[in-house]
Amino acid sequence: MYMTSKLSDCIFTEEIDEEKKTVNIYCNEDGYLHTYNYNLVNNTLYPIWCNQKRWDFLNDSIQYNDDDIILATYPKCGTTWLEQILILMKYGVDKYEQLRPAIRNNYDLSNNIGKIHIEGSVEQTTLFYDSHEISNNISLEDFKNIPFRIIKTHASYNTLLGKDQLFGNNKIIIVTRNPMDSAVSGYYHYNNIRNYAHKKIHHVDMEKHIGFDWWSLLWMQGKVAFGSWFDWTRDWYKVYTEQKETLDGIHIHWIFYENLKHNTMEELIRLNSFLNCQLSLEELKTIKEMTTFETMKKQAESNVYDELNSDVHFRKGMVGDWKHYFTEEIADMYKTKLHDLKIEYQM
Fold it and tell me: How far is CA 139 from CA 86, 98, 134, 143, 188, in A?
């Protein structure tokens, strides 16, 4: 099935194969064809390393423990930053030298530390170009036997693996960033992945990347991996605001990236309380210093794995960088959609 749509001056064609559950998006900009390939998982666009069959298998196979911590973020909304904070809070600041931000601090079975990307690395049998994260396979048996797990997901609430098991004893942390900065960060991230894949196949850099205006329109409509930021945020916010407090308190914690950036200690204190880590102010100050953007970028520079898994993952980490990229017309489109969410973001 083909559908051609027009977003402002951006014309794209969406090819959907209902049988194979794949989606190809073609965007013709000034005579140059940009192609994006996705899988369709529960009617949500997913990267090519996870399809409906794999998702169904994991959904039937994954078992959570009560002390698992789930970190849910839309891509490029502070995921690696929060992973590093959580690891230091739960494993201890003495583990700092074992962290590897260049590869998103993936779980290392040799020293039993790190986070686990549940859709990407658990029983991943088909290896693709785009991440050390998915080549660092963890078997279901190993996953089951890991004593304490920090689990990362980019899933929308609709595609959260094993969600029927959660929302009882587990601690769930949701990190969200304003959509315009998220779109800018996503633009560079996607370009890096596409260029890396292109070089693997053709041994040269891509001739041209899609212009930001067109990209921002595709991103706004959710024609990217993990679907619409606006749908993702609305659904998770509903889960957060409707949670029922138990004798142990609340089990879902909401963090705005912008608050974490501008009021880091306050947010670390809130997180410390939510997780009942009982860390001192001095320990929290140490964690703050170990997780600054500059510190993590420097760590990544010293542990380069390849062009994609290096400090390139850390671009600017700014609040308000979107103002250098958005036209007034497209910014107004984003702000209108954001207004409908009724969630206040610092822009």
Answer: 23, 22, 12, 6, 31
- Contact call for residues 230 and 156 (beta carbons, < 8 A): no
- Relative to beta strand 252-256, strand 171-176 is parallel
Cα–Cα distance for residue pair 233/27, rounded to 1 Å: 26
The per-residue b/e assignment along 300-319, b for 16 or more CB within 10 angstroms, e otherwise, is: beeeeeeebbbbbbbbebeb
The SS3 assignment for 254 reads strand
Rounded-to-integer distance, Cα 27 and Cα 210, Å: 8
Helix (H) or strand (E) holding 121: helix 118-121
| CA distance linking residue 50 with residue 124, whole number of Å | 9
Whole-model pTM?
0.88
What sign does the CA torsion over 111, 114, 119, 120 have? negative
The predicted-structure confidence for 157-175, as pLDDT tens digits, reads as follows: 999 999 988 887 899 999 9
Q: How far apart are the first and last CA of the chain?
A: 38
Question: DSSP secondary structure string, 210-223?
Answer: PPHHHHHHHHHTT-
**Hey, what are 120's tokens?**
């990407």
Domains and CATH numbers, the chain: 51-341 (3.40.50.300)
Tens of pLDDT, residue by residue over 127-145, are: 554 555 555 688 999 999 9
Q: What is the residue type of 50?
A: C
